[in-house]
TrEMBL record:
<dbReference type="GO" id="GO:0016491">
    <property type="term" value="F:oxidoreductase activity"/>
</dbReference>
<dbReference type="GO" id="GO:0016787">
    <property type="term" value="F:hydrolase activity"/>
</dbReference>
<protein>
    <submittedName>
        <fullName>Metal-dependent hydrolase</fullName>
    </submittedName>
</protein>
<dbReference type="Pfam" id="PF04909">
    <property type="entry name" value="Amidohydro_2"/>
</dbReference>
<keyword id="KW-0378">Hydrolase</keyword>
<dbReference type="InterPro" id="IPR006680">
    <property type="entry name" value="Amidohydro-rel"/>
</dbReference>
<dbReference type="InterPro" id="IPR032466">
    <property type="entry name" value="Metal_Hydrolase"/>
</dbReference>
<keyword id="KW-0560">Oxidoreductase</keyword>
<feature type="domain" description="Amidohydrolase-related">
    <location>
        <begin position="67"/>
        <end position="261"/>
    </location>
</feature>
Length: 262
């Protein structure tokens, strides 16, 4: 089974399904999203969508109300295509710890979703993920996915590694190969058994090659669609791996085990 471990709701969802079919991808982990760059028709409209993205990844989404529309879109996509999409739900990080626990219990576990994410703490504040890790641990070790590209800092990655060490039952996935700090991300994931590294939006091909070489059993094929393309992301993995067990694990085997699908 080929599993795209990182994607966001598309408008319309049929465009996303077409991309998955073209790439030969069986299923995709699906996150909600506030920005929709795929709606843009010119530079001006893209700037508007990217401004929303900048607000989201800067940790300025602003409580539960800022998430409701994204959650609704996610639920609609999951309900329409349960055979293709694997749902994760993000959690506002400006809530009190007991409120975080309530959201995880009600809106993640209670809705039958597979994990938590994509979390977007403000730069320098990855410590805000701690209550989510605690709640995930309380529910048997739900996978948690954290945004890895800018504005995530190298110190944020080190903070996440410390949290992973404190909650070893929780699989903690760093997305987008850690962005500009990909060498730090590879090293931290390699040395922290409960961490995983998702490979989308790599700046250089040898970053993907090195990540797979160092942590072949904890690297995950992902596209970050609509920002990336599933076919290109799959081709990148296949370019740096030969046919066989390692490629199969990166393209879906590891994700299937992580998600309880194996």
């Amino acid at each position: 089974m080929i599993i795209d471990a990182h994607s966001h709701v598309h408008d319309p969802v049929e465009d996303h399904l077409a991309l998955l079919d073209d790439a030969g991808v069986d299923r995709a982990v699906l996150f909600g999203t506030r920005p929709h760059p795929e709606r843009a028709t010119d530079l001006e409209s893209l700037r508007r969508e990217m401004a929303v993205l900048d607000e989201a990844i800067g940790g300025r989404a602003g409580g539960v109300d800022g998430y409701r529309a994204a959650w609704r879109e996610l639920d609609e996509a999951l309900g329409a295509h349960p055979d293709r999409f694997i749902g994760f739900r993000s959690v506002p990080l400006d809530l009190a710890p007991h409120q975080v626990a309530e959201v995880v219990d009600r809106d993640v576990v209670g809705c039958g979703l597979r994990g938590i994410g994509e979390l977007t703490p403000p730069p320098g504040r990855a410590d805000l993920v701690e209550p989510v890790m605690r709640a995930a641990s309380d529910h048997g070790g739900l996978p948690v996915v954290v945004h890895g590209f800018a504005p995530t800092t190298a110190e944020d990655l080190r903070t996440l590694a410390r949290l992973a060490g404190a909650y070893p039952s929780v699989p903690l996935v760093i997305s987008q190969l850690g962005g500009l700090h990909w060498m730090d991300a590879i090293e931290l994931v390699r040395d922290t058994p409960s961490m995983f590294l998702e490979l989308s939006t790599a700046n250089v091909i040898f970053a993907v090659r090195l990540a797979v070489k160092e942590i072949p059993d904890r690297t995950l094929f992902g596209s970050d669609a609509p920002y990336g393309d599933p076919a290109l992301a799959r081709a990148t993995v296949e370019r740096v791996t030969g046919p066989g067990e390692v490629r199969d694990q990166v393209l879906g085997g590891t994700a299937a085990r992580l998600l309880g699908l194996a």
